[in-house]
Amino acid sequence: MFSRLLLFVALLLIPGLLRAEEAPVEKAGFAKRLTIYLAKGPANACGAGCDRWIAIEGEIDRDAAARIRSFLLAVKEPQLPIYLHSPGGNVEQSYAIARFLRARKAIARVGRTSVGACSAGTQIDAACQKIKAGKGEVEAELTTRNAMCVSACAYLFVGATNREVAPDSVLAVHNSRLMFVVHGHPPPQVVADFRRREMVSADRDRNLFLAAMGISHELSELIRTVKFENLHVLTRPELYRFGIDTRPLPETLWAVEKETRPYVRKIAQQKKGDGSSFRMMEWRLFCENKDRGRLMFVREFDEGAAGKSTVVMMAGATRTVAFGRLPARFGKYEVWSDPVTSDIVKAMLAVPHLQIGESTPSSDGKSDLKSDLKPGFTTFDVDTTGLEQGWSQLLASCPATSAGPKPASPLPAAVSPSVNAVPAASPSP
To answer: Which neighbouring-strand residues pair with 138?
Structure first.
């Protein structure tokens, strides 16, 4: 596209320059140059058995593809997951990076990396950029909460063969905008015709690129309808339908939320039927004292369900963790809240998955869901990765048993699942 614009200017015999419209990426916490580095975090920071990852963050500049390619070619472990956090940038560079990621069969996720050595300043100041540009790994923390890959970053993301968008992160798209400066006074119609041809060419290039990445043409059609000034956050059904993230139960790791009263949280979205809708769910584990916690479960009410459902959580085939009764209803959400002893928490920490069973009461109003899960009940598993580390952090500030229990409220502070799906700032094209 850059060469075509230069040709256009030359034909007009007018000096010209192509530029990308600048967006307030620095104010949003993004560097104005795409950065890539190796990060190492605590055990299971990037999933079960994973503590090392590749971070790619910042604005996608015009030299980004060559830089990313050189870096990745030097990485001896091609299957390290790549975590993206970017407001977008140069579209053609995104295409080039995406094709390289496809050739490597890369694993890509949306996530924010925070380098511990940068705590004295910001994650984008000159000192921090120097740390990230150094050789070797940097100690860091990883979170998907409010992480975003938007605009041209979405093209980069779909190049990976394994793609995951966590329920609390954002993938968003909009149409691109051609920006160029022409010195002189070319006829307005000439400029308008050129712009129109270039947009047609850009649409064709996008269609071919997405098709090559195995993404539904519906995404390209959607992008055409979103003005550059706006952003469309892809919903979970769209991520599934377009072929971007086709997991039936995308979930976050368990992570500590440092609120006035801290808790460990997990969010999941459960596919319903053909994937045209997903059901949001959230678990919160509080520490009431050294011997007791409180587990809360919030999910969207299923308007299409035949009746209220009893839900039970199990740690293994025989150990009931919590619930086993009907929920309280608050607006569009249903809520369970149960105390859990330290022994039950230990049982939760000892298994790789917790099993959720659901049963609809019979006509007499009784549920057959008792202390264990029987064949025929609707069940699904949620991962426990991050739960042990999170619980250990809670215990460090939890009151001793002798201080007496401090009961948790039977309801979360906010009943609705606490997911922020709005990007912090408008990205560049």
So the answer is: 39
In a domain, 182, yes or no: no
Do 263 and 389 fall within a single domain? Answer: yes
Alpha-helix residue ranges (DSSP H) falling in 86-151: 91-104, 126-133
> Comparing C-alpha atoms, which of 265, 283, 264, 297 is closest to residue 398?
264
Q: What are phi and psi of 268, to 5 degrees?
A: -140, 155
Which one-letter DSSP state was computed for residue 60?
B
Shared domain check, 264 and 227: no
Whether residues 144 and 231 share a domain: the answer is yes
Contact 373, 356 (CB under 8 A): no
pTM: 0.86
Rounded to 5 degrees, what angle do the CA atoms 348, 353, 359 make? Answer: 90
| Residues 287 and 227 both lie in one domain | no
Residue 4 in tokens? 């075509």
CA distance 51 to 113: 12
**Domain with 291 in it:** 255-403
> Mind listing the pLDDT tens digit for each residue in 160-219?
999 999 999 999 999 987 666 666 677 888 777 777 787 788 899 999 999 999 999 999
- For every residue of 336-387, DSSP letters joined together read EEEEEEHHHHHHHHTSSEEEEEEE---TTS-----SSPPTTSEEEEEE-TTH
